[in-house]
Amino acid sequence: MIKGNFPIEKFKNIETPFYYYDVELLNKTLDLVKKCSTEHNAIVHYAVKANANKKVLSLIAKSGLGADCVSGNEVQAAINAGFPADKIVFAGVGKTDKEINLALDNDIFCFNAESFPELEVINELAKAKGKTANVELRVNPNIDAHTHKKITTGLNENKFGFNMEDLQSACQFIDKASNLKLIGLHFHIGSQITDLNAYESLCVRINELQEEFDSWGIKIENINVGGGLGINYEHPNHIPIADFESYFRVFAKHLKLRDGQRLHCEPGRSLVAQCGSLITKVTYVKKGVNKQFAIVDAGMTDLIRPALYDAYHRIENISSDLEVEKYDVVGPICESSDVFDKDVELNKTQRGDYLAIRSAGAYGEIMASNYNLRRLPLGYLSTEL
Ligand SMILES: *Cc1c(COP(=O)(O)O)cnc(C)c1O
Prior knowledge:
By secondary structure, this protein is of the alpha/beta class. Helices cover 29% and strands 23% of the residues. Strands 1, 11, 12, 13, 14, 15, 16 and 17 form an eight-stranded mixed β-sheet that branches. α3 links the parallel β2 (42-47) and β3 (66-69). α5 packs across α6. The longest helix is centred in the middle third of the chain and has 20 residues, at 197-216. The model has no long low-confidence stretch (mean pLDDT 96). Residues 47, 49-50, 68, 70, 91, 188, 191, 226-229, 266-270, 362 line the site of pyridoxal-5'-phosphate.
């Protein structure tokens, strides 16, 4: 079996389960993104919600990217990690007054606004501070990203963004508002998008909208195409880095930017998923009638994606080189959905073996909970072990 490289000797001093982040892979990924975005004159904002581990955040901040935040605490975490405020964007349908004030106080780059009442509140709060808030309108482009129904965001039935019919009046609203400035349009059509045709459709839609904006005589400085680029969960060893070259090429080829317009994007998963693994120890191997179970010390409280989205993660026994057998890999939580995967081929597994649940760097550690009064998993960088 092909497996990742793990310093298993060093794991013996660490309480399991824990997240292990391969810094070399993270840096390689960041280098590629920087190379491609520089070539295409694009600005990249890391979507903090994918992984807000302080050590991971500060590595990403050091690489020079901006940050895309969806809560006040994320804005604060991004600033604490060293992201420059003028590269922070703030999205979300339910920004509270407290969160908006925090963002205003820090002079972030812009608010990605999602509704009329939100525009009204941002304007009032900015006025009270004697500031002008930059806003991008988040547009719901009604595009099917062909991804899991719980992570698609760009359809009319979703709660996100302005409908296209409301854009002209949203522009008029901003124009009349004393303390708002329209600086861009924002889109985000979904997550774990592996078919780049979805982005091509987005480009076509943006091109249509731009013609309307031209006809209204409204100039837009920034086009933010959001995040969503998928990664290869099946083959993390063969395909450890997402295809950023093709991703940026789609926009270069299909998106008709106006003079001086700047492309922005907000990758989350594609930057951090592959560098992270959840490391767990086998507590028991239990023989069923037709099955055997590897009962591990990690559960859905540590990595909820399989239970929440039926997500697949490759699992490797990194302690054993014995012949391969099949196991259902399950956690200890009192929920029948606490199953990482069924009929997993693992090298013959014994109590005490370490398993690596791969591609878990995004929406893993950050979604952990205390359910069953479990301790939250800690995250370690490869460079600190
Ligand atoms: C979640 C999110 C992203 C990042 O999505 P990924 O699929 O992790 O790349 C980007 N922008 C917005 C507005 C988001 O909500």
